[in-house]
Design brief:
CATH architecture of the largest domain: 3-Layer(aba) Sandwich
CATH superfamily of the largest domain: Response regulator
Shape: elongated
Order of helices and strands: EHEHEHEHEHEHHHHH
Number of domains: 2
Strand order of the largest sheet: 2-1-3-4-5-6
CATH class of the largest domain: Alpha Beta
Largest sheet: 6 strands, parallel
Number of strands: 6
Number of helices: 10
Structural class: alpha/beta
Oligomer: single chain
Radius of gyration: 18 Å
Helix content: 40-55%
Length: about 230
């Protein structure tokens, strides 16, 4: 049974999400929270597997809330009344279209997945299961938009030197460049003349080596490490 905490500042939406989860035999909505502070407290008390969080939730510091939920052991200012869970919950964010910048920051803060808030009910419940299993969920459309956002990003500081790239093999670097270009596994296999299963293995290995949970985080790494440069 996957336990879920629903975090949303709209009572009607919280009710709808709770009813949706209740209809699934393997999903259990163990509680609700209306803002970030309540969510942090509820996670400490209820120990949910997944936090289903609305992107508009804690407007003053939504990224900070995600960081506190996903990495509670690293947060010095967590409420003393809220015990730190043995394993942080996986955070799944519902976001409106056009919030690629928010999604980029939230991934860096520790979010495990994103769905557009107009996703079909079966997409949402499937995403909860995937995130609970430790995998990442990001829709193809959002992935492409995030890649474009990272590619066009202008930073006020120079990109860091290629620290960390030495852990990757030459082929893994080739695959990472392809991932940062937005290619699918099938496209990478065709262009590099390798089997799709080999591509999948390379992607899995390089994600593990650079400490990324999803392809979009690998894209971020590729640009920040200097392996790929932002377009002019």
């Amino acid at each position: 049974m996957v336990s879920v905490l629903v975090v949303n500042d709209q009572s009607l939406q919280r009710l709808a999400l709770r009813m949706l989860l209740a209809a699934e035999p393997d999903l259990d909505c163990v509680g609700e929270a209306v803002d970030g502070e309540a969510a942090v407290r509820a996670v400490g008390e209820l120990r949910p597997d997944v936090v289903l969080m609305d992107a508009h939730l804690s407007r003053p510091d939504s990224i900070g809330t995600i960081r506190r939920l996903a990495r509670p052991a690293r947060v010095a200012d967590a409420p003393r009344a809220a015990p730190v869970p043995a394993r942080p919950p996986r955070v799944l964010v519902l976001t409106p279209a056009g919030q690629e910048g928010y999604a980029y920051a939230a991934l860096r803060a520790g979010a495990r997945g994103f769905l557009l808030n107009d996703a079909a009910p079966e997409e949402l419940t499937a995403a909860v299961r995937v995130v609970a299993a430790g995998e990442a969920v990001i829709t193809p459309a959002l992935t492409r938009a995030l890649i474009d956002a990272v590619r066009l990003q202008r930073t006020s500081r120079p990109l860091r030197p290629a620290a960390g790239l030495d852990v990757l093999t030459g082929r893994e670097r080739d695959v990472l460049v392809a991932v940062a270009s937005g290619w699918s596994n099938a496209e990478i296999a065709e262009r590099l003349s390798i089997a799709p299963t080999t591509v999948k293995t390379h992607v899995s290995n390089l994600l593990t080596k650079i400490g990324a949970r999803a392809r979009v985080q690998a894209v971020t790494f590729a640009y920040e490490s200097g392996l790929v440069r932002p377009a002019a």
